[in-house]
Design goal:
The structure is a single chain. By secondary structure, the protein is an all-alpha fold. It has 14 helices and no strands. The chain is elongated, with a radius of gyration of 29 Å. The two termini are about 35 Å apart.
Length: about 350
């Protein structure tokens, strides 16, 4: 999350974009890429597209080969599997070796996670076709991909946990680039994970969420005033929530957590900006409500002079104060909709 990727790759490292379309039925079982044809053009393909093409070709040809061997040699069960492996074993080993070489130096966790879900879907297809020939291969691929994906997530968790806010440049109340990367990345993983949920992935995302929340609080603590701290927190919570809600379910842990944080900090900010112009009036209303709950209405009669003074002060300044606050709020928040909702509250 803290590295500085090139502009060409920045949008694909942490953002799903259109890459998730590869899991749709149309693309998952679409035509394979023909190498010599693809080389003629200038198009470049992300790893998961090459992976999908290679393994769909393997799935299709492997199923046909297994059925042919079973029918031609009139074998079944373990005998059919042994015959299939004697013919396809070297090819499968070459695939695994090539994949292991790539994965060992891969830090594109979205690509690795997409490959995992491609395999999960291909495994379901072979099971539906009742072809067991590739079962062990699918398991071997997943045993390569899962540990790498988990390792990359753990590296991101540790990088956020160990960061020093003072080394991240000039303070700014606008959304931080780290929180935007987290929001894009987390929403990508959550959306991919919905079809074949994995508990370990949920656990790691939960740890990442905790570290990001702590990071945002550490960054906010660098601002000298509570008002600027709240603006920073609200801008970041609102941005992360907006990005997450584009892909994640409304009842996901990430969405619910940031909704609660945003609501709490928004209420605190409203009290913060109302206090200077209307602090006296707010304090009196709270005192009066407390007395009314206790049934001590007689004590309010003794506050007549104070009430008159508060009402006169309020009537003479409220329009100017409200206008000033509205302008201040709209300047402070990057999301126009969020700023408008705060003014309305």
């Amino acid at each position: 999350f803290f590295s500085k990727p090139s502009l060409k790759s920045r949008n694909t490292i942490f953002t799903l974009g259109q890459r998730g379309a590869i899991l749709s039925p149309a693309e998952l079982e679409g035509p394979i890429l023909v190498p010599h044809t693809a080389q003629r053009g200038d198009s470049r393909y992300p790893y998961e597209m090459l992976f999908r093409s290679q393994h769909y070709a393997l799935l299709d040809n492997g199923c046909r080969e297994f059925l042919f061997l079973s029918d031609f040699f009139m074998v079944a069960g373990n005998s059919a599997l042994d015959l299939f492996n004697s013919i396809m074993g070297k090819t499968l080993s070459m695939f695994l070796k090539s994949m292991s070489t790539y994965v060992s130096d891969c830090y594109d966790s979205i690509a690795v996670f997409l490959c995992i879900h491609i395999i999960l879907r291909f495994r379901a297809i072979t099971a539906k076709r009742n072809i067991p020939a590739l079962d062990k291969y699918w398991e071997a691929v997943l045993e390569l991909l899962w540990p790498r994906f988990e390792l990359i997530l753990e590296m991101n968790i540790h990088s956020i946990r160990n960061t020093d806010p003072q080394k991240l440049g000039v303070l700014d109340t606008r959304p931080h680039y780290i929180t935007r990367r987290y929001a894009e990345f987390s929403s990508a993983i959550v959306s991919i994970n919905q079809t074949f949920p994995n508990e370990r992935t949920h656990t790691l995302l939960g740890q990442l969420l905790v570290e990001v929340e702590n990071f945002v609080l550490k960054m906010a603590a660098e601002f000298p005033s509570r008002r600027d701290q709240l603006i920073f927190l609200i801008n970041n919570y609102d941005m992360m929530l907006s990005v997450l809600m584009e892909r994640a379910a409304d009842d996901s842990k990430e969405v619910e957590g940031f909704q609660q944080l945003l609501l709490a900090r928004t209420q605190e900010f409203i009290e913060e900006i109302l206090s200077p112009p209307f602090g006296g009036m707010i304090a009196f209303v709270k005192e009066a409500e407390a007395l009314m709950e206790k049934g001590q209405l007689d004590r309010l009669k003794n506050e007549e002079a104070r009430i008159i003074q508060l009402v006169r002060g309020f009537s003479s300044t409220w329009k100017q104060s409200v206008e000033s606050m509205s302008q201040d709020v709209m300047r402070s928040f990057t999301n126009f909709k969020n700023g408008t909702s705060i003014i309305q509250v």
